[in-house]
């Protein structure tokens, strides 16, 4: 993780991302209070928090490719905030699901074991948990940067399983989950393509 | 007066050495605040745009209640509270208008329910094409308050207006070969713009076994709450088979064909492992992706237990005697 030097002039950025990322919670609460969630508010809230999780995860995973492609450094400053926001929405999504099932852990276990759709969603949440827990600078030091980096590659697995969960949850029109899958594939591709020439470039090249 | 400043403290040097914020703290604060607001707003707005689906139904419409028919409860009526009109007409699955629940109410104006003709053919003696108003005038219209259970795990209580399907079938005189009834919905992308997308095979086709169709619960609805059926609820003519999942109750019917063979129905074709021909409401047979043991009645936050045959077991369970309903789901 990058540190934020005080005098960069970007110290407003991470809090702005946090505030913007939390705005949908306010809108969701307002909608819930005014009937704006429609006839099946629980289902609507479940769907929206799920979509927010995926969108924020994709944004957090877009930071590095964006930095690689453009050379900008600001994406690295907001990656953690975006990732933590995604985790927050994943937890909210899960809590709404639990509420919907009357906080019956037996029913939940049944769902997780028997239904691949739920298994995938639950797996994604579990994969995000260690990432959220090790999001502090102290965790980076304690784990060592390399191990920390390798651990945080779980984000790829989490987002992939998350999209699968979305895909399986949709009854018929699979366009939206496929769009997410496409974006994720593109982000993976950028990293993959960038990595190989970068290794070559890292070797000392004799100058003519 | 002696100058307390150190040599580096001349305004000139300060400007060179210190960041901008030390020179113009107020300007820097305003700049940061503006950037903060714009960025937070852009991210928040973008997220809303990508993820929010406002529920249809204006606050004004939410106030319109259904009226319970002013008559004693019939043998098939439920006494449960009727789903508010606004919810029953804004939370609909009608993929011909779009896959989102709010699409049908939004798009229903494109459907022209009159003039409308219905073709009745197949294994019948009196095959004919009949005008909708004529068809409706053949039978005395009845109110029926039915539970409606969607395969997605939600339910409503609907006050239909219409006539028993059996009356219609008997009128066209089935031949001895007739064993099934196939229903076909309107195919017209101009009126049903969702048909421009091949999310399902159009037109929508549904079917019943003849004995199911002749059961007094099987109902042809032409109205809702004593009013003309709204487009999103399947105007001008739809089926209501309350012991089966909602997708069996096909909307905007243009053709009814009596057949020898079991019809190839739309959802059973689209996802045979998930949706069967029978589609009887059965808490014991889970959908591959969710349990069918409970359901949410629209308007309630909690869930209630789903009843076998949606609570109509006493009337219809006999139709399936000897059948394994785990296999024939």
Describe the structure.
The complex is a heterodimer of chains A (about 210) and B (about 325). Residues about 1-5 of chain A have low confidence and may be disordered. Chain A has about 210 residues and is mostly helical. Chain A has helices spanning about 15-35, 40-70, 75-100, 105-115, 115-135, 135-145, 145-150, 155-170, 175-200. The mean pLDDT of chain B is about 90. Chain B is elongated. With about 325 residues, chain B is of the alpha+beta class. At the A-B interface, helix 1, helix 2, helix 4 and helix 5 of A face helix 3 of B.
Short account of what is shown:
The complex is a heterodimer of chains A (208) and B (329). Chain A is mostly helical and 208 residues long. Helices cover 80% and strands 0% of the residues of chain A.
Oligomeric grouping of the chains: heterodimer
Which parts of chain B are unreliable, with pLDDT below 50 for 5 consecutive residues or more?
none
Strand content of chain B: 15-25%
Shape of chain A: globular
Approximately what portion of the residues of chain A adopt beta-strand conformation? Answer: under 5%
The number of strands of chain B is: 12
How does the helix and strand content of chain B classify structurally?
alpha+beta
The outline of chain B comes out as: elongated
Descriptors:
heterodimer, A: 208 residues, mainly alpha, disordered N terminus, B: 329 residues, alpha+beta, seven-stranded mixed β-sheet, five-stranded mixed β-sheet, elongated
Helices and strands, with pairings:
The complex is a heterodimer of chains A (208) and B (329).
Chain A: H1 13-34, H2 41-70, H3 74-100, H4 105-114, H5 116-133, H6 137-143, H7 145-152, H8 154-169, H9 175-202
Chain B: H1 11-17, H2 20-23, H3 25-51, H4 59-62, H5 85-88, H6 103-107, E1 117-122, E2 128-131, H7 132-137, E3 142-149, E4 154-164, H8 165-172, E5 180-185, E6 205-209, H9 210-213, E7 219-224, E8 227-228, E9 238-240, E10 253-259, H10 266-270, E11 294-297, E12 304-305, H11 313-316
